[in-house]
Specification:
Blueprint: E1 2-5, H1 8-19, H2 30-43, H3 45-56, H4 69-78, H5 81-99, E2 106-109, E3 115-122, E4 125-129, H6 138-151, E5 155-160, H7 170-179, E6 183-186, H8 189-198, E7 208-210, H9 215-224, E8 229-230, E9 238-243, H10 249-260, E10 267-272, H11 275-291, H12 295-305, E11 306-310, H13 314-324, E12 328-332, H14 336-340, E13 348-351, H15 357-362, E14 388-395, H16 398-414, H17 418-425
Parallel strand pairs: 1-11, 4-5, 4-7, 5-6, 7-8, 9-10, 9-12, 10-11, 12-13
Antiparallel strand pairs: 2-3, 3-14
Helix pairs in contact: 2-3, 2-8, 2-9, 3-8, 4-7, 5-6, 5-7, 6-7, 8-9, 10-11, 11-12, 16-17
């Protein structure tokens, strides 16, 4: 891995390079994605099935697009029982964590007859996109469905691309069944996002779409945003490890590579105050890469977006971490909890040398759908909040309104909105 001194110049160059990975930088694909979205919106099932055959090589019809109970039962027979047990353990942890995020309606009443409050309502429907192909991500199934389930969403629709034989990856189906998906459809890519956003003869329209996907999925979500809600437009995965001389270089290297193996656009960054640690970590990444199954992807990822930055002080390192605002941030220092209090921007924070990033990906409970590309400066992880909406409650008695009606009229007239003022005034005109 390249080793550099941390200064303003290296930090600016790094931030500029990382921003190039944003889906917003892939404008050349937007026209083709928009064409797919528009076609599905107009021609519905017909376009959806045509694109499924074109991109996935599967011939799907209205009779086969919905995954059946028999297909789910067959999936259970093809998944190792030990993995099913692990999925259930992870599910329990994820559900328990998200149940603590629940918000409830509240009302505040006063003696004068004023009632103010907030009504919390779960969304009626949510669509969950799950990638298919060679890779299977049952963990993403759990992370996207469980918060919706905890929130009380009435109907959770999952879409995932089928294989050429028209089947869905067994582990994906098992995870979806365990998490509580109501319906599962064989559809992927931008065409699946369009189907969820606008509805087809087979796939119902939803109120919100969540879930990871490739650049076509990300741009399709961007294209339908406003017609439906979305979670975010996610970019490639990223990890930043903040470490001092007390860190174990072997552990740090292993954790950096856990994200570098995702794809060639993933970023893995170490910011450290120890020059010795920097070179030791670099050596370990080389040794691990030779042994790991996705070594070619890791090498390209590290060549493109792998960095080791040596900071003069821990405060400089913390400032850099806050500027980068990484999706995953590990703190491996002599006093990691103190450092954590100074972190403003990160998707998920892992504290201490035994809190490796995959713990959050699979098992601990917090959601692994996290803000990327610096958006942790203003976005949060996927949560129960993403599947609820809030309505303000206002109720005034005559006596309460009488006390302040002239104030409202004054405000309205100052804005030259006389109908607003009149709406209040008519209720008391006989008393003037």
């Amino acid at each position: 891995m390249r080793i550099e001194r941390l200064d303003q110049t290296t930090k600016n160059h790094l931030l500029e390079a990382l921003l190039k990975r944003s889906p917003s930088s892939y404008g050349k694909y937007e026209a083709s994605v928009q064409e797919i979205v528009d076609n599905v919106r107009k021609r519905k099932d017909q376009a959806l099935f045509e694109y499924t055959e074109k991109f996935d090589g599967a011939r799907i019809t209205s009779d086969t697009v919905l995954v059946t109970k028999e297909e789910i039962q067959n999936a259970y027979s093809r998944v190792d029982e030990q993995l099913i047990a692990v999925i259930r353990k992870a599910l329990k942890n994820i559900r328990s964590y998200h149940e603590k995020q629940m918000q409830y309606s509240w009302f505040d009443s006063r003696p004068d007859g004023t009632i103010l409050g907030q009504k919390v309502t779960p969304l009626k429907s949510a669509g969950v996109y799950v990638p298919g192909g060679k890779a299977a991500y049952p963990s993403s199934v759990l992370m996207n469905i469980i918060p919706a389930k905890v929130a009380g969403v009435d109907e959770i629709i999952m879409v995932t691309p089928p294989g050429k034989d028209g089947s869905v990856t067994p582990t994906t189906l098992v995870a979806a069944k365990e998490a509580g998906a109501d319906k599962i459809y064989k559809a992927g890519g931008a065409q699946a996002i369009a189907a969820l956003a606008y509805g087809t003869e087979s796939i119902p329209k939803v109120d919100k779409i969540v879930g990871p996907g490739n650049i076509y999925v990300a741009l399709a979500k961007k294209a339908v945003y406003g017609h439906v809600s979305i979670d975010s437009i996610a970019g490639p995965s990223e990890i930043l490890v903040l470490a001092d001389e007390t860190a174990n270089p072997k552990y740090v290297a292993a954790d950096l590579l856990s994200q570098a193996e995702h794809d060639e656009m993933a970023s893995a960054i170490l910011v450290t105050t120890s020059e010795k640690l920097a070179y030791e970590v670099s050596d370990w990444t080389d040794r691990f890469t030779e042994e790991l199954s996705r070594g070619d992807i890791i090498r390209k990822s590290l060549d493109n977006y792998g960095h080791i930055l040596i900071a003069e002080t821990l405060e400089d390192a913390i400032d850099a971490a806050n500027e980068i605002a990484s999706e995953h941030l590990e703190i491996v220092t002599s006093n990691p909890f103190e450092v954590m209090t100074k972190i403003r921007n990160a998707g998920a924070i892992f504290i201490g040398e035994y809190s490796s990033e995959p713990l959050g990906d699979y098992f601990a409970g917090p959601n692994h759908v996290l803000p990327t590309n610096g958006t942790a400066k203003f976005f949060s992880p996927l949560s129960v909040d993403d599947f609820i909406k809030k309505s303000s409650i206002i109720s005034y008695s005559r006596e309460a309104l009488k006390e302040i009606h002239t104030d409202i009229e004054t405000f309205a007239e100052a804005e030259h909105l006389t109908a607003h003022a009149n709406s209040v005034r008519v209720r008391f005109e006989k008393e003037e």
